[in-house]
Amino acid sequence: MSKNELLVGMNDKQTEAVLNTDGPLLIMAGAGSGKTRVLTHRIAYLIQDKQVLPWHILAITFTNKAAREMKERVVNLLGPSGNEVWVSTFHALCVRILRRNIDKLGYDRAFTIAGTSEQQTLIKNILKDLNYDPKTYNPRSILSSISNAKNDLQSPAEFIAKNESVGNPFIKVIGEVYDRYQKELHRNQSVDFDDLIMMTIQLFEQEPEVLKYYQDKFQYIHVDEYQDTNEAQYRLVHMLGEKYENVCVVGDADQSIYGWRGANMNNILDFQDDYPSAHVTLLEQNYRSTKTILKAANSVIQNNDERRDKNLWTENAVGEKITYYRAQSEADESRFVVTNIKSEMNDNHYSYGDFAVLYRTNAQSRVIEETLLKSNIPYTIVGGHKFYDRKEIQDILAYLTLMANPSDSMSLQRIINEPKRGIGAASVDKLVTFANENNWSVFEACQNVELNNELGSRARKAIDNFGAVMTDLQNQVPKLSVTDLTNEILEKTGYLATLKASKTLEASARIENIEEFLSVTKQFDDAHPDSEEAGSALVDFLSDLSLVSAQDDIAENTPEVTLMTLHAAKGLEFPVVFMIGMEDNIFPLSKAMSDSKELEEERRLAYVGITRAQKKLYLTNTFSRMLYGRRQTNPASQFIEEINPDLIDAVNSNGRSTNGGGLKTPFDTPNNRQARFANSSPYQGPTSHNKKTSSNQSGAASQSWIVGDKVSHKAWGTGTVVKVDGTGENMELDIAFPDPTGIKRLLAAFAPITKE
Ligand code: ATP
Ligand code: MG
User: Polar residues bias located where (predicted)?
Assistant: First the structure.
């Protein structure tokens, strides 16, 4: 591809940014203006036209998915040499650096990465040990304080010293726990997420030679979403770029949404102070969204005081108005989403993959998920930990982690009695004490348990057995692929046999998940046929998995509706976007409503959400909703009010406008707003939702159903209705289909079934 081809269709500013390769460069621009695209083309240009060797280029993205996509694009532009570019997240970059060098900090290179559940177990153990009540000292909030300290690059000693004068007893305890926590992690040869970056910086500070090696390696550095870097990430980029100063960062201060995780918007605003020779390029043309969507986004963000004004415009069409629906309940809201997905697909030939449903908090996904399930619409939840948080998957991962790193006592404790082996909590406590007394890992304590006099003979025998099985498995690690090792574990530990014996529905679901996990290991094995070092495949596999971030998805092939939080949506785009739960107290969060700084961050999040939409945006909320076990009634979100009413088409559940195509009345007070919207969507009766969709979508709603009815379904064949619940649009059918489908619960109104 020639230089000109790389620049085809780029506007002047974008071209300038691609060609400006030497020295520090800041690309500051609004959403959808091609920042990420420019980065990709710039990398291709460096290699192709500037003869920079691909391995001298580093690109840091916010998620693994973004990294994969960027790499794919570079390879498409350049061919296989693009594979040599290091494109990764901050965390993945640091794992790679630490795997080669962490021994210089006194750690084993096969270190494991502690996930949230291990971190919590560890904190709970420490609190117990130090005699602090976990009710007073909430483990989660302690962990978040520790995380903040690490993001600010404070070691335990520094944290303690810094807070000494404060005299706050709570902070004192945090300091003490933080100190112990680091020691315990070290003993387990384990690091947490924040350590990955902090320890890389420590390594660079302590070992100038290592730093120099990476400075010479990464002569051209790129960072996407720079507005969301925290202090530690900022330092890392600064250290790496110090020698050549070819640092190109791109971002949008209006999309800074990780302040709560220590991100510092000033990193982007101060870039010119950090690099006085920096060149700054502003991109102003948006290529993603319709004029209507862009206007809405601009009008919302303009309400923030702490920002530099910019002029984001587009040549795209005006497009459709934004549809706004105030539902009666969360179920009504979900039905509205499903109805409109179906009608959009029908009218505009979209596929499921063209839709995203965005919400403020993960807890809001459940209702929409249920409605999608029952309507038989495929969906995926990004970052909802649908899969990896399941117990059986966590158990297997703990086994594998222990195989990779026998020092990891947290993982060992998770599975020592899983499946049940008669090793109760009291015995585990004694075993841990025994390990501590001898300065052993708990694994070593298991291997030497016959020396222990405290444990009863039965427990001792059980532990001895367990130790023997684990040792035997561990010896096989160098010889086996990850899949074979997993199968061995499932068999030798009796894990699978126990599930099979239990014959419950739950157990069979767990077995299915394990099978799914084996397809993940298989994929990995296929992609890594020959690992250089014995056992390194397992370590790499576990690293990959622990880096699956909140925004990363497992399956990407089949078109599915995407459900995710607004945070996870950063950088992505979808033709049709639903932002649900647009209510004060939910979005913005109630705690942000009285704090102007937090409110501004919520508003930036609204800006991120709105600008994900390419063609059509839906905003919904509900008059009353059940959330966290409480029913609440909230006025419409103030962010809706901030959108020019002429851009909005408020509809009732029929899909008819209730505002003649525009919100004419100003709705400036919550009361006013509430009155304004309270009547907009009386629930219109059973079949009203389907009026907008054509009749071939589903005739099932208007029919009556009784147990025993036969139905046919395209994919699942002929089934029998075994249960009917509810009426009208709420009618749910349990239908027994032939194996392997089994019983499915479907919403009669939406399911693609016909009566036979
Ligand atoms: P965000 O702030 O959301 O991360 P961004 O600034 O990174 O957005 P991109 O994702 O790079 O924007 O681009 C937005 C969309 O516009 C993409 O679909 C991209 O392919 C398209 N695009 C960018 N520049 C051009 C161009 N010059 N011509 C055509 N399409 C473009
Ligand atoms: Mg981007």
Answer: 668-704
